[in-house]
Specification:
The structure is a single chain. The protein is α/β, with parallel strands linked by helices. Helix 7 runs antiparallel to helix 11 and helix 10 runs antiparallel to helix 11. It is elongated.
């Protein structure tokens, strides 16, 4: 999944490949930080005050030792103590302000990122999701964003805090003792060696670790969503083994990342504190020789400890930043993904209420990544209010016609017009507002009955919902549910039968009240009783609408105004049921096969 070829196939710009630099990835966050620049600036001001207060404490320590203890003056000692306490109060208030401002800003930015990624995902066509596992996307929205959450706000502000204190402490070291400061300036570059060398490896391993966690999430999502299939085939042992492999791979990647990060922290701490020890030894000799006062040495050690602690802390936080860089790359990749649909800068608008006339002219189409044409020179006219059925063997291109009419894809050649307007010139959202889809496998969300029916018309009244359910022959079973219209359907409508789910899907289409209706094998998987109830509901739904039906059952086909027989993406024949039977072609052959099969097994086959 995580390779440049995949992202290139999905239309991701070159700069969004996994090989981009960490700095470029983190720079992608600028768009989310910009709206809160004044809050960030206020947090930075509080950060400067807090860092300056810590540095001032070093001078307070010097005064306590030299002016307080050295002068043996109680008044001087009291004044110095008051100064230290005042600085501590200012430092505490500034720290509170920094933490409050930066943490709340971080939470706000993370929320904005989650919303932006989800909003962007809704604009991508089905082709993207066919090549991208849902669990992978969920992982980026959850675990990757959680990694960022630990860095934006806390991590970045702490990194800057320690960095500023280090720089300020270095300045104070030079002022206190230029000789000893030179030794510190030699030690600081040494700490950069492991940060630069080991740090690059940590970043790569952070990216790999996030990818392995995404694999775990993807497998978990798939296995739990299809738990009935897993259990019905007794696949539990194999799934345990495969999930264990993904989990162990994630663990191994995490161990490699943690090991190198621990090595980075340990190396920086060793260099930093050994430098402090050497400086303390040299400074002690200077005090004994009278070149430094005890207070100056104490202040120097205080500042040196700040530098050493800052070097250790920044190296540790830098590990978090590198991990966040890997997570940011994966998030920015999603945001940089561009829809494959070609939407003109100036779109053409359809009428608020179209007549429903559909014209398909010389359509040619191949699915992304495939060379074989799913449709070739396919043409069809559908008049307002006309009912047209598409029949043919599996793979003939029937569902592809519906997908192109919904503008999930762009055709290679030809065009589709609604009321004479080429839908390629329109906003896909506007095109879909005039089309209602009733699929073979109806989608029921984990929500109440009323929310599911309102899905295509969120502002509809309860009375309108009830009327649509009554017309869809769904009222009788809804009223028997505990809670009625407020009953929760469970994930994917697991609490309903196939016929009940289909009738709710029809009620949804009725309430949406759109001029063009697409029925994708809406009754093929139902028993006779459910098919009768759904058939009555469909008759009401189709009235006055241009209807395109993918039909497998002969009874459904016979009611169509026209039947279009498809084979290998082309129109093979067209006519009424009787005329096509008289021609004794592909349609008659398929009809006889279904009739023979129904006679022998009562189970329908494809028509």
């Amino acid at each position: 999944m995580n390779n440049p070829e995949h992202y290139a196939a999905q239309g991701i710009v070159d700069g969004a490949s996994p090989a981009r630099s960490s700095l470029y990835g983190l720079a992608g966050l600028a768009r989310f930080l910009s709206p809160y620049r004044w809050r960030i600036a206020a947090g930075m001001l509080a950060l400067l005050i807090a860092a300056g207060s810590v540095l001032a404490l070093g001078q307070g320590l010097r005064q306590v030792i030299d002016a307080g203890f050295g002068s043996r003056s109680g008044a001087q000692l009291n004044a110095t103590l008051a100064f230290v306490i005042g600085v501590a109060v200012v430092m505490s208030l500034a720290t509170f302000a920094r933490f409050q401002l930066m943490m709340t800003t971080g939470e706000r930015v993370i929320t904005d990122i989650r919303r932006a990624v989800f909003d962007h995902m809704l604009t991508l066509p089905p082709g993207f999701f066919e090549g991208t596992r849902t669990g992978e996307i969920i992982s980026r929205l959850t675990s990757d964003v959680t990694v960022l959450q630990s860095v934006i706000g806390w991590g970045v502000s702490m990194f800057l805090r320690y960095l500023l204190m280090m720089l300020g402490a270095l300045v104070m070291l030079v002022i206190t003792s230029p000789k000893l400061a030179l030794l510190i300036l030699v030690g600081v570059p040494l700490t950069l060696v492991p940060i630069l060398t080991i740090g690059r490896r940590v970043r790569r391993q952070s990216r790999e670790s996030q990818d392995r966690v995404a694999d775990v999430s993807s497998y978990l999502d798939e296995a739990l969503h299809e738990i009935r299939t897993v259990q019905s085939y007794g696949h539990e042992a194999e799934d345990r083994r495969l999930f264990g492999e993904h989990a162990e791979a994630a663990y191994a990647a995490a161990v490699r990342r943690v090991r190198d990060r621990a090595l980075l922290i340990a190396a920086v701490m060793l260099i930093a504190f050994c430098s402090v020890g050497v400086i303390l030894w040299i400074g002690g000799h200077d005090v004994l020789d009278g070149h430094l006062t005890a207070g100056q040495l104490s202040a120097f050690v205080f500042y040196a400890a700040i530098v050493a602690n800052g070097a250790a802390a920044t190296s540790e936080i830098w590990g978090d930043v590198l991990r966040a860089a890997g997570a940011t790359e994966r998030i920015v990749e999603l945001l940089d993904t561009r829809p494959s649909l070609a939407i003109p800068a100036q779109t053409v608008s359809l009428a608020p209420r179209v007549s429903g006339a559909v014209s398909i002219e010389s359509l040619c189409f191949a699915y992304p990544g495939r060379e074989d044409l799913a449709l070739e020179d396919f043409s069809l006219e559908i008049a307002p209010g006309e009912r047209v059925a598409l029949v043919g063997p599996s793979g003939a291109g029937k569902s592809t016609v519906l997908a192109l009419l919904l503008r999930f894809y762009d055709a290679r050649a030809g065009r589709i017009c609604i009321d004479g307007i080429d839908i390629a010139l329109c906003d896909p959202l506007e095109v879909r507002r005039h089309i209602a889809l009733v699929p073979q496998d109806p989608v029921i969300f984990a929500a109440s009955v009323i929310d599911n029916v309102r899905y295509g018309c969120p502002g509809a009244s309860e009375a309108a919902v009830r009327s649509a359910c009554e017309a869809a022959q769904a009222l009788e079973f809804i009223e028997r549910l505990p809670g009625g219209f407020n009953a929760q359907m469970g994930e994917r409508g697991v609490k309903l039968s196939g016929g009940q789910r289909q009738r709710l899907s029809i009620a949804r289409a009725l309430l949406a009240d759109r001029e063009i209706l697409l029925l994708d094998e809406a009754t093929s998987s139902l028993d006779a009783e459910s098919e009768r109830a759904v058939g009555v509901a469909l008759e009401r739904l189709e009235r006055g609408r241009a209807t395109l039906v993918i039909a497998h059952r002969l009874a459904t086909v016979q009611k169509a105004d026209r039947i279009v027989v498809m084979e290998q993406g082309r129109v093979h024949a067209m006519g009424s049921h009787d005329s096509l039977m008289r021609e004794d072609g592909l349609y008659a052959h398929l009809a006889r096969l279904q009739f023979l099969d129904m006679k022998e097994t009562t189970a329908p086959l494809h028509v």
